[in-house]
Amino acid sequence: MKPAFSVCVYCGSKPGLEPQFAQVAQQVGQWIGQHGGQLVYGGGKAGLMGVVAQATLEARGQVVGIIPKALVEREMAFTQCQELIVVDTMHERKRLMAERSDVFVTLPGGIGTLEELFEVWTWRQLGYHDKPIGILNTAGYFNHLLAFLKTSAKQELLSDWQMNLVQIDESPLTLLPDLVQKAGLTPEPHLQQI
Hints:
CATH class: Alpha Beta
Largest sheet: 7 strands, parallel
Helix content: 40-55%
Number of strands: 7
Radius of gyration: 16 Å
Order of helices and strands: EHEHEHEHEHEHHEH
Strand content: 15-25%
CATH architecture: 3-Layer(aba) Sandwich
Number of domains: 1
Shape: globular
Number of helices: 8
Strand order of the largest sheet: 4-3-2-1-5-6-7
């Protein structure tokens, strides 16, 4: 069955210290699965990546993992994905993740997560896509980053228009449906209760 929408999730391959990070990652996966959606993510089994993928599967959602060959060889792949795409480079991974998604959501993560967020954000400001982008600011994880970006805007190195291309929220239960609706798609209501 074709999914109602595809959500690209960027997040850490580590769990982090804050228990709320994993709780929100699980809520994201559950919401995607319960609403007839598809998760598109980096294909890993560890950390928050593994949590969101497992939660999506358990909620009967579809999971597409896209992972570089080098990480598969290190046994980092989540082999339970319905579709696990193995690519040669990180560039190819990110391109396919963007192509296969209707919206983008960033959860807590490290430099790889931040790089993915900024790349897709840059692509949107340049007009390479018009897909909604969201940041889940769980437990204030992104507070310092957002403060820095506001400083960049005050210094006129970043515009309010650019800042407004990304939606920031603390709850996946409000952010996800809003992003999906902004993409012109509708969650499947008959799958909301399992």
